Amino acid sequence: MVLADGSTHPYPGVLSFVDRNVDDKTGTIRLEAVFPNPDGIVRPGQFARVRAVVSIKKDAVLVTQGAVVEAQGIASVAVVKADDTIEMRVVKPEDRIGALVILGSGLKAGERVVVEGVQKVRAGSKVKPQAVPLEEPTAPSASGASGASGG
Predict the structure, then answer these.
(1) What would you report as the CA-atom Rg of the chain, rounded to the nearest whole angstrom?
(2) Which of these, 138, 68, 130, 49, lies nearest to 98 by C-alpha position?
(3) pTM for the structure as a whole
(4) pLDDT tens digits, residue range 67-82?
(5) Low-confidence residues in the chain, pLDDT < 70
(6) Are residues 78 and 130 in the same domain?
(7) Which secondary-structure segment (H or E) carries 114?
(8) Are strands 29-34 and 48-49 parallel, antiparallel or unpaired?
(9) Do residues 67 and 113 lie in contact, with contact meaning Cβ atoms separated by under 8 Å?
(10) Based on the domain organization, do 83 and 107 belong to the same domain?
(11) In a domain? residue 71
């Protein structure tokens, strides 16, 4: 649970109720979660956001949103090959987590992709890549070239 001041509640909660009805006006489903509150941090009527794991994807390949170029419904990334030349590769984005995109196919863990200036590179062009760390899901996008990450 993320509290109104941005801090994270120190104890994990559990889902205790899921309503089967969808609210016609908001398109939402009512859920209820129970969190331990031994220190009295959470008060009645207090606003909070709840994050929940809805699925776990082992060995997922993640890239920054800026690395994925979409044109005419086709998504692609600029892969930096071993000889520092560019190969444009079609990928299948599956989901987004903050500033990152999970790719279902088209890229393997450890491959390097262009994350800045991707509109300027062309297949076969030579680049001078600079490695940058893959950011956490809530961080802004990075610059340079980054390796895809398995997670």
Answers:
(1) 20
(2) 138
(3) 0.58
(4) 999 999 999 999 999 9
(5) 134-151
(6) yes
(7) strand 112-114
(8) unpaired
(9) yes
(10) yes
(11) yes
